[in-house]
Fold this protein.
Amino acid sequence: MNVQIVYFSGTGNTKTIALGYERVLNRLGHNVLVSSIEDCVELGTHDVLIIGGPIYAGNMPDELITWVRKHIVEVKDHQKAIVFSTSAGLLNANGVKSIGKKLAKKGYSIVDTPTFEMPRNFYIDKYDPTPEDMQKLQFEKASEVILESIKNIDLNKDLVINESVIMIDILADVFRIMAKSMGKSFAIDDTCIRCGKCEKNCPKQNINFKDKKYDNKCILCTRCIHNCPVNAISYKNKKIQQYHVHHTLVTE
Ligand SMILES: Cc1cc2nc3c(=O)[nH]c(=O)nc-3n(C[C@H](O)[C@H](O)[C@H](O)COP(=O)(O)O)c2cc1C
């Protein structure tokens, strides 16, 4: 079977799950192509499509929704699809429904829509980072969910998403506008070593590290904060404790 996995990941949780699916599917003898939406402009021929993203304010990021709208064409053979999200376990289930419904409209049979509870990466303004012991448990549980999810590919499932997703898509749109405004509160301070990693890694090309400036295209993915080698990026003049994926899935 040819499986194509496409994801958006701000800080690595969703990428970790995407690679977990890849590993298990490879072990089962399938051909798997995995890529981030930042690198994937066109889908290849596939029997199964897996799409994953984080939850931002109750839905997938507008960035991923727009990618799905633009790049996924109608399919004729009821190809199977899994839509998964990673979230901190708050408002989350609707994100998978929004993209699931869009794929179903394109002719896919949706076989699973799992949500993975992962460490929180969003505590710039409120909330606390996920405690270490909890993170470890989340990765163990995630491994089990991947194995269960893959079993659904062989079952003749076709999940029907009846609910309207208009309101949650509007919410993603509103959040995109909010993010642009909140993004103006990021700043690069004088501890910057001018490595340029923030500029190079930003999914929106929103950072000019030489001038220490953010443009107004921020999607609040927080990648710049958590990946700066010297933690030189602050939010509202506050340093944030950095999050890195450092647990491994049991599928490895
Ligand atoms: C801007 C933003 C908004 C978020 N909103 C939610 C939310 O509404 N519910 C939730 O459970 N987690 C929320 N989170 C947490 C992330 O969904 C979670 O940490 C996710 O696994 C991050 O994935 P990534 O590392 O692939 O970017 C939010 C994170 C960010 C950056």
